[in-house]
Specification:
The protein is mainly alpha-helical and 108 residues long. The protein is built from four helices and no strands. Helix 3 packs antiparallel against helix 4.
């Protein structure tokens, strides 16, 4: 469907669609009563450095989990060095604390 509107009318429609978190077409169908759009919370913007830092920490957790699971599957669970595991967990906890500190200072 094509319809004519002024540039200011189009800008108003686009702004309303963005504010509602909807595509323009959905906003128009909703205005005509043809559909009822599900309202979603807008996706928060996240610093890409934060995403990468958390992914690295997640990778460390994954490696640790694989190591422990491998020890359990091979029957070496009793030989798992609890001190080694605790050391790795403390390192991961410190990494997370550094990431949080780095990204909470940015907004203040």
């Amino acid at each position: 469907m094509i319809f004519r509107c002024t540039p200011s009318e189009k800008a108003t429609l686009v702004a309303k669609a963005r504010a509602a978190g909807l595509p323009n077409a959905t906003l128009m169908r909703e205005a005509l009563g043809l559909t009822e759009a599900r309202r979603r919370k807008p996706v928060p913007r996240v610093d890409t450095q934060l995403t990468f830092a958390i992914a690295r920490v997640g990778g460390n957790l994954n490696q640790l989990s694989r190591w422990i699971n491998g020890a359990v599957k091979s029957g070496r669970a009793s030989q798992v060095d609890a001190l080694k595991v605790a050391t790795q967990l403390v390192a991961i906890e410190r990494q997370l604390a550094q990431i949080v500190a780095a990204h909470t200072d940015v907004g203040e």
